[in-house]
Structure formats: structure tokens, C-alpha cells
Amino acid sequence: MVLENEIQSLPKTLAEFMLWEPNDGFKYEWNDGELIKFDGMNKKQVYIYNVLNKLFSKKGYIEIGSLVSEYDVKLTGIQMRRPDIAYLTDEQILQGRKGEDVIPEFVIEIISETDQFYKIEDKITEYFKAGVKVIWNIVPEHRLVYIYTSRKTVKICSDNDICSAEPVLPDFAIAVNDIFTEK
After folding, report:
1. C-alpha angle 98-103-106 in degrees, rounded to nearest 5
2. pLDDT in tens, 20-43
């Protein structure tokens, strides 16, 4: 009987999903009727977010926007994703406050061991279709960063290669080793 109640309480539309508050400790995305469960950022991912957030502040970008973790991004009328990190301008934050849906131009996904390749590719496609201009896929287990500026243009960075968020944030650049090295 409990299982039946739980099934009935799951959202059936994006509108229902946007109002839904899960109580199981997980976070969710919505993709054309599919409810996608994930854990949220783990401690390694929070460390990476912290490193990038400090760089963001040091470069002065805090004056024009914010790096936001797990922000609800409504890509289309049937898709809501939560990138691990999204850059929002102050203007976009104000638009969001007014209830408008905004698309960040720069998003970062920190890939975990449980992420599936085809699901990652789906997200890349969805992000670019929605208007994202730069995507970083950070792979901590291999100390790699994949930088996409289109579906066909990707730069794979390792070691001392410099990761850049150009053209969205031209001075937001960091060596891969600096993303992972404890300071």
C-alpha cells in the first residue's frame, strides 16, 4: 500500500515536477516525462566547486554574476536539468527572481563514476540546443576536463593544460592540475 501511495505522489508533468518536493534525500532532473534521480554533489565535487568559486571571485566576476551549484535550468517545455555548476549574470538572477526561466551561458558538470556516457552526451546536446555557449565536463577520476564550445568542438585538457570559459568569461582560466591540487 505504501508503494502505491509513493507512485501516485510522483510528478507526471514538468509543471508538477517544478512544484514537487522529494522527501527521499535525492535530487532529480526531468527529461520529457522521465524522472532522473541523482545524489547531488559529493565532497570531491564540492572541493572542485570551491576552487572554481575562489577563482571566479579572484578574477572579479563576482561583480557581474555568480557561480551557482545545482541550479534548476528549464531547457525546454519538457526538460529541467540541474548542472553541478552554472554561471548566471546578475541580470539573469533578477530575471529568475521575477519567475522567468534563464539559460546560463556556461555550465560545469563534474562527472562521477556512476554517470553514463550516453546520458552525458544527451545533456551536452540539450544544453547547446537551449543556448549554453561553454560546457566543462570535469572528470576527477582521470583528472581531465572536456571543454565544449559546440557539439563538434571539444578540447580535452589534462595536467598543466589551461581550461578557459571563453568566450563567456574570458579571464576565467585555470590549469587542470590546479583544479585538483590541494592548497
Report:
1. 130
2. 777 776 777 677 777 767 666 778
Q: Which sign, positive or negative, has the C-alpha torsion 53, 59, 62, 68? A: negative
- Single-letter amino acid, residue 179: I
d(CA 88, CA 103): 8
Distance in angstroms (rounded) separating the CA atoms of residues 158 and 145: 7
Q: What is the mean pLDDT of residues 138-146?
A: 96
Residues making up the chain, counted from first to last: 183
Half-sphere exposure of 19 (CA within 13 A, CB side): 6
For residue 45, count CB atoms less than 10 angstroms from its CB and return exposed for 0-12, middle for 13-18, buried for 19 or more: buried
Sheet of 144-148: strand order equals 65-69, 85-89, 106-110, 134-139, 144-148, 154-158
The answer to whether the CB of 40 falls within 8 A of the CB of 27 is: yes
Residue 177 pLDDT > 60: yes
User: Please, which residues have CB within 8 angstroms of residue 124's CB and are 6 or more apart in sequence?
Assistant: 135, 137, 148, 151
